[in-house]
Amino acid sequence: MTRLRFVERLRDLVVDTDVVLSDIWGVVHNGIESFPEACEALHSYRGRGGTVILITNAPRPADSVQRQLRKLGVADDSYDAIVSSGDLTRRFVADHPGKKLYWVGSERHDSVHRGLDPVLSELEGADYVICTGLFDDETETPEDYRPMLTKALARKLPLICANPDIVVERGDRLVYCAGAIAEFYRELGGEVIFYGKPHRPIYERAIALAAERRGRATPLDRVLAIGDSVRTDLAGAQGFGIDCLFVTRGIHSKEFEGIDQLDPASVKELFGHPPRALMRELRW
After folding, report:
1. Which of 44, 66, 147, 258 keeps 20 to 30 A from 110, CA to CA?
2. pTM summary value
């Protein structure tokens, strides 16, 4: 295994790439402000004929994600399409009409079931649980959900996780996501169905959207994923059989402070199987 170095420019990595599957949170913005150089990099890549599909674990449908991007100043022409874990979760709800669901999450994520006429229920009468996040991610931790999860486990309820992320950046802080609740439930012995990275369905949908935009399928060796999470972005890309550019400014930023290159032992410790390259922040 060779040393893993940082690269400065996306353009040096995409000469033989037709499609980029880019993470959003941590790569394009941090929840409070967008990263102009990252947006310009994706825009410039599209200008050279590349296709950009934004792939996100946001527990909201793509149109809701797009509205947030616009508010943060991310131009529509920075990307071709968006696929979210929220889209896939909505499909699950739509495919289970009449089933009662208990929803765990903030009101700001109600778009995950809005318009589908779901049967919302208290936990005692539910057929399954959907988790889009914590009720209050500013103050709560997964441990606060132990009583609720214990009751769900006793009833053998499946938990549908609409965001497999454990934590996400919010400005200069990290806050818990739905994945933290889902993993806790799985540790207790509960059944969890995950929608989003690193699981295959979201990549399959992204590749299908890229084919629609390009008018043809793209070989996986001409696809590059971009992300900032070892657990979701890197593992998901590698599991799907595509290369990954790992951006270190996100949730792992403290682990890369003052590091210019990684020796083989450090690569194995941090990544297991390494990404194609490292970049501190996405730029053209």
Report:
1. 147
2. 0.87
